[in-house]
Amino acid sequence: xxxxxxxxxxxxxxxxxxxxxxxxxxxxxxxxxxxxxxxxxxxxxxxxxxxxxxxxxxxxxxxxxxxxxxxxxxxxxxxxxxxxxxxxxxxxxxxxxxxxxxxxxxxxxxxxxxxxxxxxxxxxxxxxxxxxxxxxxxxxxxxxxxxxxxxxxxxxxxxxxxxxxxxxxxxxxxxxxxxxxxxxxxxxxxxxxxxxxxxxxxxxxxxxxxxxxxxxxxxxxxxxxxxxxxxxxxxxxxxxxxxxxxxxxxxxxxxxxxxxxxxxxxxxxxxxxxxxxxxxxxxxxxxxxxxxxxxxxxxxxxxxxxxxxxxxxxxxxxxxxxxxxxxxxxxxxxxxxxxxxxxxxxxxxxxxxxxxxxxxxxxxxxxxxxxxxxxxxxxxxxxxxxxxxxx
Length: 391
What we know:
Layout: H1 21-32, H2 38-45, H3 51-67, H4 71-83, H5 92-106, H6 108-113, E1 115-122, E2 125-132, E3 141-145, H7 156-164, E4 168-172, H8 178-183, H9 192-202, E5 208-213, H10 216-226, E6 230-236, H11 242-247, H12 252-263, H13 267-280, H14 282-295, H15 300-307, E7 322-328, H16 339-344, E8 351-357, H17 372-388
Parallel strand pairs: 3-4, 3-5, 5-6, 6-7, 7-8
Antiparallel strand pairs: 1-2, 2-4
Helix pairs in contact: 1-2, 3-4, 4-5, 9-10, 13-14, 14-15
């Protein structure tokens, strides 16, 4: 295989290159998961102060990388330029198509030799699935998916790393993610067991490990609760309740007030408050707009109601397999304290392991961005130990 085409190496570290935590995480995710250049991204980070400057900066980075024949870097930059474009931006569809076309053309050799790109029948459409199998007899099967704003394409090196450890990997995009929401307009569902179940049925899989990243940390356990073929589930993110995660950066009294208004069905009030906040907080504006699209919500109120259904408490007692929960001590989305309600919600799990990564390990961020190799090694060791125990 052409070494120049082999996916980038994992980046280790979590420097503060932008003062806004939301931007800082995405900048480093561009490097660690997508193939951006840390030095180039660090310089560009100084130009980013809002969503508009983000989009322009990453489009410019992509154009420069293409001019320099650094296609791997350009793919990362175009992916993130599109990622934060509003859904009503006329450039968004073309930007997504450009990123995906470049990706599969650049990595064609990998998809000819190491990964099969397949289509999973699902309702009236199909879901994209990568199937990667080791040369030897697989140690087991891993099913992998993302969360709130994930793309299948950013799991390339992760899927390959797990395959090189001896596992058959089935990575997919589900409703509300990547191509599925953009092309088929399918939105996130609390019935995630039906999505994963369709994959298990189609590929005749049993005794699998399911890994869900970020919001997948709630979706994957929900799938495990509804399908006993999932013997081991890894929540790559502490997500006991997605609405609580959305509200976690707000003052406690605001969180309580929103809950009261939701319970009282005060939709006009919530929608008014969110529209006012959106005018002064571009991050909140993007988050609500993205949530409305990916959840198929008609308003901010509707989005919050749907987000509240992505939780563990209502299904956790049905999880009877082995569970690994992975958290980070400086996750600006998810307070470390969220681990307890998530653990308490799964009283019947066969085994339950919680691992908190820390800033000292370059791993204090959301989804342990900055030490992906470390978290994958943990997963591999955990899966292996529980397989040996016959679970």
